[in-house]
Design a protein that fits this description.
This protein is an all-alpha fold and 134 residues long. The protein contains seven helices and two strands, in the order H-H-E-E-H-H-H-H-H. It has one domain. The protein is 46% helix and 3% strand. Strands 1-2 form a two-stranded antiparallel sheet. The chain is elongated, with a radius of gyration of 16 Å.
Amino acid sequence: MRITFNKSRMTNRAEMFQSHNILPIRGICIWKTLKFVHAALHQTTHTSFQPQINDNPRAKFSLVPTKATNNYGEKLVSRLGPNMFNSMPENIRNIEAPKKFSKEVKKFILSNGYLNNFFTSNVNFFSLFKKYSD
């Protein structure tokens, strides 16, 4: 990307992606997962994955992630998807229009500290949303 935009090798990658409004690969994975969960929640896609809505009125988050019994289970969409969705601000979670939701999620990912974590090699991609589980 530095070559494409004729930047020096010292240019900060996170700032470069943010300034050009481009998501890195990890950001695309999060964006696509959130779009999938949103589509499944609003039943606009044909899938066997059906997010469970928390019926407790005092619950902080609206979707219930599945229980994981091993490391593989921690990486399933049925576990990560609800965790990622619940980590979004309520005003974004409440958007029903798919295109507007997609646009707002992309802005959220680009505007928050996620980008810096994407380029740190010792950060586990799946742990970014783990704090919201259980």
